[in-house]
Write a structure and sequence with these properties.
Elements lengths: L3 E3 L3 E9 L7 E5 L12 E6 L4 H5 L7 E5 L2 E2 L5 H9 L4 E9 L20 H24 L2
Antiparallel strand pairs: 1-2, 2-7, 3-4, 4-5, 5-6, 5-7
Length: 146
């Protein structure tokens, strides 16, 4: 992602899309009159349409907050006004979006939250119990043959 990291675990990115005959290829929710999240009148991507411009580009994701369209801030807009802004945005459309960062998988250094950073207990117990069950089964089979 060629965006910057904003405070609080969010990243921002500018995505340029070229309008297709079917439009930009996504639906939005939110606005001052139709808050998607309580006490938040922001505009969010609710659905990416298969084979639409956003789907084919691959960067826009469901749940992304759209901060601006072609440099115009979407703050404090009613839903229908935001829809109209998208409809009249032209052929080449620039979206400034904000996305919540997801925790990355992989090696972890210091956890800092009280976790030991070791193996999960289940990773030790499950194989151990399987071995114990196999040993009991073998022992019972062996005793039946005597």
């Amino acid at each position: 992602m060629n965006g910057s990291v904003a405070g609080g675990g969010f990243s921002e990115e500018v995505i340029s899309l070229t309008r297709r005959p079917s439009g930009l290829g996504f639906n939005i929710v939110g606005g001052t009159d139709q808050q998607y999240i309580s006490n938040d009148s922001s505009i969010y991507v609710s659905r990416i349409k298969k084979d639409g411009a956003a789907y084919l580009d691959g960067r826009l994701q469901e749940g992304d907050k759209i901060l601006a369209v072609n440099g115009r801030d979407l703050k404090d807009l009613r839903h229908k006004d935001a829809v109209e802004l998208f409809r009249n945005a032209g052929y080449d459309v620039s979206l400034k979006i904000q996305r919540r960062l997801q925790p990355q998988n992989g090696p972890v250094g210091h956890q800092g939250d009280g976790e030991s950073g070791g193996l999960p207990l289940a990773a030790i117990l499950v194989p151990g119990l399987a071995l114990a069950a196999a040993a009991v089964w073998i022992l019972l089979r062996y005793r039946q043959r005597m």
